[in-house]
Amino acid sequence: MFIGVALSVGICRASHAQDAVTKDAVTTDVKFFTEAAVVLTTGTILTGTLVLYPERQVLALKSANDSTYTLPARLVRGFAAKDAPDQQRAGDTYLALQRIFRVFPLPATKSTSPVAWGFYEQLSRGPGVVLLRRERAVGYQESLRGNFPGSNGLATQTPPMITFFPGATIITLYLATVAGAVVPLRKPQDVFKHFPAMEPQLRAYVRENGLNLSNDRELSFLVNHANSLAKPTP
């Protein structure tokens, strides 16, 4: 059944001659899933525990027989994963705590040639236009460098002591079109711009159901409704 879903320190310092503290912004986001099913572009299905590195566009899967696979996004069609309740954000709990991630092109930049691929979390149902989300946890690392007394009492250059501090989670929403293009949403209300012919019906749906479009899950309901109103392609 689960595979079916996949298819759709402390340190005491002595006196020292000099030290320096530097702070650098870093991406700290790594996602762990105790149970996942990965579908490769070849159609092969792999199951096991999964670690997702969103900024590197890579996942690592460890299967039941201890085989480990490191897979870049370009080799993956998508994966389904079961999430622990404490990993859910407020208002984002989904049925059976199953989350779907799919691979789409990353937003184009001057450095992305040829096309670069990345992992997006799918929030709405298909087929049709799909609401996607990418999360990036940003913090900073503090490095302490200096000359510390060695065992012989002389100043010795030691490796820097690095401490990580958590920061904020940056969330970006996108719409994936039927043609496979990925369009970023500057704000949730931009969804209306992608369905101009049915905007009155969609605004009425939001009012009648009291939807809060700032909630990603409720925004997904709006996209699902838009797809239900769209005329089927002959």
Walk me through this protein's architecture.
The protein is mainly beta and 234 residues long. The protein has 2 domains: 2-8 and 29-136 and 170-185, no CATH class; 187-234, no CATH class. Helices cover 13% and strands 44% of the residues. The chain has 3 helices and 12 strands; from the N terminus they run H-E-E-E-E-E-E-E-E-E-E-E-E-H-H. It has helices spanning 2-7, 199-209, 216-229; strands at 19-27, 31-40, 45-53, 58-62, 68-72, 76-82, 98-105, 117-122, 130-149, 155-157, 161-176, 182-185. Strands 1, 2, 3, 4, 5, 6, 7, 8, 9, 10, 11 and 12 form a 12-stranded antiparallel β-sheet that branches. Strand 8 (117-122) and strand 9 form a beta hairpin. The longest helix is centred in the C-terminal third of the chain and has 14 residues, at 216-229. The protein is elongated, with a radius of gyration of 23 Å. The model is unreliable at 9-19 and 23-27 (pLDDT under 50). Keywords: Signal. Residues 1-17 form the signal peptide.
Q: Uncertain regions: pLDDT < 50 for 5+ in a row?
A: 9-19, 23-27
What count of helical segments does DSSP give? 3
Give the total of domains.
2
* SSE string: HEEEEEEEEEEEEHH
Task: Give the overall form.
Answer: elongated
- Derived from helix and strand composition plus strand pairing, the structural class reads mainly beta
